[in-house]
Amino acid sequence: MAVGHRFGPARRTTTALLAGTIGLLTPLAVALPGWAQTAPADGYFATPPPVDMSKLIPDSGQPDKKYKQSKGCVQRAVLGQNIVLKNRPWGQDYLQISKAQEIVKAATPDHSAGGGVRVAVVDTGVTPHPWFQDRLKSGGEYVSTPQKAQPGLEDCDGHGTEVAGIIAGKPDNPEVGFVGVAPDATIVSYRQLSENYEPDTSTSTPPASNTAGGTPSSSTTPPSGSESSLPPSGNGGGGSGSGDGDQTSPGQSNSGRQLEKAGTAGTLKTLAEIIRGIADRKSADVINMSVDNCRPATGSITEGEQQVQAAVHYAASAGIVIVAAAGNATDTCPQNDQPDAKKPKTIVTPPWFADDVLSVGAIDEFGSVAPFSVHGPWVGVAAPGTKIVSLDPAEGSAGLANLTFESGDKASEIQGTSFAAPYVAGLAALVKAKFPQLDGKGIVNRIKETAQHPAAPGGRDNFVGYGVIDPVAALTQSLPSEIGNQAPIPGPQMAQLPPASDHSSTPMIVALAGTGGGLVALLITLFVMRTIRRNRPAETGPGR
Description:
By secondary structure, this protein is of the alpha/beta class. The chain has helices at residues 2-25, 90-94, 97-107, 159-168, 268-281, 303-317, 417-434, 440-449, 471-476, 506-535, and strands spanning 67-69, 118-123, 136-141, 186-191, 197-199, 286-289, 293-296, 321-325, 346-349, 358-363, 379-384, 390-391, 400-401, 403-406, 410-413. It contains 10 helices and 15 strands. The protein has a 7-stranded parallel beta sheet, with helices on both faces. It has a two-stranded antiparallel sheet with strand order 1-5. Helix 3 (97-107) packs parallel to helix 7, helix 4 runs parallel beside helix 7 and helix 7 packs across helix 8.
């Protein structure tokens, strides 16, 4: 008993010191870093499976099923008022589009900005507009039997025309500030998706066009900062329009257009066919797809996704630049805000296939990530995606639009990753014009390497990818990777320390004082504990 009593306080002291050490170290182990969290070994979440080229399907050149029109198409307003939007859209100034165009014009023999470069727009079709001049070509029709001689040159929804305008619109009115990124490029239109069509299970006749479900050309009030006037109709000064429907809040995105959405036209299968056909016919240098399929991440891949994966790999291998919208978060397409980025809860196709697709997230006018822009490891770069102004999609219009319709009857501002993607597709056309020797992967690499990288490991994150595009840098910087050299390694820099007399010792004194104070407090505590134990009366055993 004497021995046990003698070593009792020592054991208690050791225990106290051990507990203190654990207490000091515990905060360091509370949170695991992202890289230490392992992704599931079984299943495909952030990274898709290897490409299965047996899923590559031929281009049928027609819809995969019969569809009928269920809503009225976009029309001009009955009032016939026009609005002149003299200001440039903020995205043009933010990206210095005018300067980028001047650089390309000075470097190309025809002094054009994207002349001779063909951009395929796979969307809701493109309506002929005077500001496309003769640079709008027919690609194909995959929604219904073409009503016009040239398939793909109908846009019942209005979405595809607005997308194409951002790429290659070229106003003939000097008062208009808007201009497409590559205003001399050629647009090749494929109508593949429509919310105004639904699967046809009967032989009924499509309804006549009306304004109930049309896209307004623009609001009767111009966007903030613009000037308005009422010039004679048809002068090309601006878009006309009004529309029925409830105005959505500015924070909402135009996100209802999804491939394989119930009651609409457009499937992954026809998307895969179009991409394959473009590669086979060599009908485009750049493909812009502002169409997506969003689904919950299950660790598996569907047959339609495999078909698109094989098609984009096939086209990318043929040297085509493939640009896609990163997707918009909605109630049916939840945002990827889970703790482990390697296990997203939402998969977006075709952006998921990042090895062959350059997907584009959206930023707002303040330079922040737009709240609707879907996050993910597949995001490549970012571009403006809010407060968009583009060509009026109504047939017969000669102006601009700053509103669109969502789900057929809800008027809202034009915004979404759908409209960020064409900024990048237009930039790809300018890069192709200035550097004709580059293949598709070389163009994508140049856009990524010259982007404004976020402050993240490797210069990329899951919000804006490699950063917001920088058109001027993409057209002017010399990249070592293009001539077979590695990026330069900066030499060691000698530390330039100030003289010792200029060194302030205050931080060191404070640190040592705090450490010393802690040790003194610990020693006093141990001393008090030991004194109490020594002065406690010894316990006596039972009487004999």
